[in-house]
Design a protein that fits this description.
Layout (H helix, E strand, L loop, with lengths): L14 H55 L4 H11 L5 E7 L5 E4 L23 E6 L5 E8 L16 H9 L10 E7 L1 H58 L3 E6 L4 E4 L1 H7 L3 H4 L4 H4 L2 H12 L4 E9 L2 E13 L5 E10 L1 H47 L4 H28 L7 E4 H18 L2 E4 L9 E4 L1 H18 L4 E10 L4 E7 L28 H11 L3 E7 L3 E9 L5
Parallel strand pairs: 12-14
Antiparallel strand pairs: 1-2, 1-5, 3-4, 4-5, 6-7, 6-10, 8-9, 9-10, 11-13, 14-15, 15-17, 16-17
The structure holds adenosine-5'-diphosphate (ADP) and magnesium ion.
């Protein structure tokens, strides 16, 4: 299965999220910026107004001081105006009458002209007022104005008859002096303010853009972090799921890295190969695994497909059969990561398969043998009869007598073979009783003692206890089984040796095992699976039926025969039999 998702999936963000973030953030920052600019503008205007106000106040104070000590004249006021207007950023200072006619101006040639016409001069009171206007030369002007009241709030002229306005007007325009309401205007240069405003607006916009970007990246980071967390949670869930599958499947799983080191293996694999995952991880597969598995991984590398093989692997001296599948693992980009080997233990299946084949063969052989044996037995007894007759008749002719004796012996051998064959072919009936096995062993050993001794074989039965060991068996049949096993052992030890017999009890399974070992020639690995086959023999005069009968009898008891053998060392046959009757 190919994983179609890449690891970077969590970084991807839907374009709608980006658009949404913009839609939310842009109006907020635009509004904030506009508000900011407006506040700054208001502050500037307030500052200008205050400046204008302060100027007017100081001018009034100057006018007042002049009026106190001296006789006021238009010239003095005019001079005061011109001095005050020399301060920086002041475009003009002027005083008008209630119609807007200029009474005093820092530019004397404008005296007598009209100041701005679209202004209601009569409505101007003592409160400070301001406005922005554009001069005829296009220059922006911030104009601050109010009623000109040099005595305002000071109480200095309160009790005099003449207010300073009256004084000023009566001096400057004595003929027109009727209306004391005059207005003072201060024109402030707005250029520096406009420049500063422009700068600060630019700065505000820049700040807004920076904040917008920070906000935007904040939102994106939150989304990415959230996606990352979700992706990680999903990943760990998937990992836990696949880990538990890998750990619990009854199939052995082995992962070898591209450098040939073991990366991991699951429980089933540990059990099958009898190795520990902890001790094997990071070590070279070639140092740990059976060579057959290492060879398989190499073969998988060369093959483009999944390799499926049945291989025999020796595990702790036992020959196991594994169905294996080996494949090569690549990542999404096609990089070679290593090998995956799956193992299924089919040793038992192979055993059962063989057993079934053997039974099938036996069944057909059995019915055939029974028919043939019957046909042969009758003529054989006639032949034996004749041979006995000839032996008697030519007892004085040694040559003929010997021939007759050979005939009798061979007929007897044939009879034996046929007897075994019939024995084998007949359905096996066993009469099981609870019997002391030690008794049977002693009796059967007695029967071979002589033969063993003549071949230089020692019988070692010292592990047999004196007290009885009970088994639920057919005495005669098991006697027959033991004889067959002893004879095979004796025949295997052509140059003498030790025949050892001992019993093991298995209390858990309620069985006993009668073990017979020899120090003979042993059985080659290739033959060990066939020794129970009828007619399998490696001996010149063997029938190949001995172990087949042994197997059949023990099986009829509900038992098992096991053979372990090492070539040139010897063989151990174990007969596992029920210890007591099944309830
Ligand atoms: P036979 O003894 O007639 O050959 P069996 O069925 O008794 O037939 O034995 C089959 C074969 O198993 C023998 O020919 C021999 O090769 C092998 N075999 C059995 N028992 C032993 C043993 N104890 N040591 C070595 N080989 C054995
Ligand atoms: Mg035999």
């Amino acid at each position: 299965m190919k994983d179609r998702h890449t690891n970077q999936d969590w970084i991807r963000i839907s374009p709608w999220v980006i658009v949404g973030a913009f839609i939310v953030l842009v109006p907020i920052f635009a509004f904030m910026t506009m508000k900011n600019v407006k506040t700054q503008q208001d502050n500037m205007i307030m500052l200008m107004r205050e400046k204008g106000d302060a100027l007017i106040r100081s001018f009034e104070a100057g006018a007042r001081t002049g009026a106190m000590g001296l006789n006021w004249s238009g010239i003095q006021i005019q001079r005061l105006i011109m001095e005050t207007a020399e301060q920086p950023d002041i475009l003009y200072i002027l005083i008008t009458d209630h119609n807007g006619k200029i009474l005093a101006h820092n530019q004397p040639m404008l005296i007598g002209r009209m100041h701005e016409e679209n202004l209601d001069y009569a409505a101007i009171d003592e409160r400070i007022q301001s406005r922005q206007i554009t001069r005829s030369d296009g220059k922006p002007v911030f104009e601050v104005y109010r009623r000109f009241i040099p005595s305002q709030g000071r109480g200095l002229f309160r009790h005099r008859r003449m207010t300073p306005e009256d004084m000023l007007l009566s001096h400057m325009f004595p003929e027109n002096y009727q209306q004391p309401a005059i207005t003072i205007f201060v024109g402030l240069d707005m250029d520096p303010i406009v420049k500063t405003m422009r700068e600060s607006t630019k700065q505000s916009i820049l700040n807004a853009v920076i904040l917008l970007l920070i906000g935007f990246s904040g939102i994106i980071s939150i989304i990415v972090a959230y996606n990352y967390r979700v992706a990680r949670a999903n990943l760990s869930r998937i990992k836990a799921f696949s880990d538990s599958i890998v750990e619990n499947i009854p199939v052995g799983l082995l992962f070898i890295s591209e450098s040939g080191r073991i990366v991991t293996m699951n429980n089933a694999c540990e059990k099958m190969l009898r190795i520990s995952c902890l001790e094997s991880v990071s070590r070279y597969a070639a140092d740990i695994l059976p060579p057959q598995l290492v060879a398989l991984s190499q073969e998988a590398l060369r093959s483009s497909e999944i390799l499926i093989r049945e291989i025999d692997v020796p595990v702790q001296g036992k020959n196991m059969l594994f169905e294996t599948s080996a494949s090569v693992l690549h990542d999404d980009d096609g990089h070679f990561l290593g090998y995956i080997i799956l193992l299924r233990d089919i040793t038992e299946i192979r055993h059962l398969k063989r057993e079934m084949q053997r039974k099938e063969r036996l069944a057909s052989l059995g019915s055939l043998a029974a028919g043939v044996a019957h046909e042969i037995r009758n003529p054989l007894s006639s032949i034996k009869g004749f041979a006995t007759y000839f032996k008697e008749r030519y007892k004085d002719v040694p040559e003929d007598k010997d021939t007759a004796e050979i005939m009798i012996r061979e007929v007897e051998r044939l009879n034996r073979v046929i007897g075994q064959l019939l024995e084998f072919a007949r359905p096996m009936n066993v009469q099981q009783r609870t019997i002391d096995v030690n008794g049977i062993l002693r009796h059967s050993l007695g029967m071979i003692r002589k033969q063993a001794a003549s071949q230089g074989i020692t019988i070692d039965a010292q592990d047999l206890a004196d007290e009885p060991v009970y088994a639920y068996i057919d005495q005669d049949r098991i006697g027959q089984v033991l004889l067959n096993v002893y004879l095979n052992a004796i025949e295997a030890m052509t140059n003498g040796g030790v025949l050892k017999i001992w019993i093991e009890k298995d209390e858990v399974n309620d069985t006993i095992a009668i073990n017979v070992s020899d120090t003979g020639c042993g059985i080659p690995g290739a033959d060990i699976g066939r020794v129970f086959d009828p007619y399998f023999t490696t001996k010149q005069s063997g029938t190949g039926l001995g172990l087949a009968i042994v197997h059949k009898i023990v099986e009829a008891h509900g038992g098992q025969v096991k053979i372990a053998s090492t070539e040139e060392k010897g063989t151990t046959v174990s007969l596992i039999l029920p210890a007591k009757e099944e309830e």
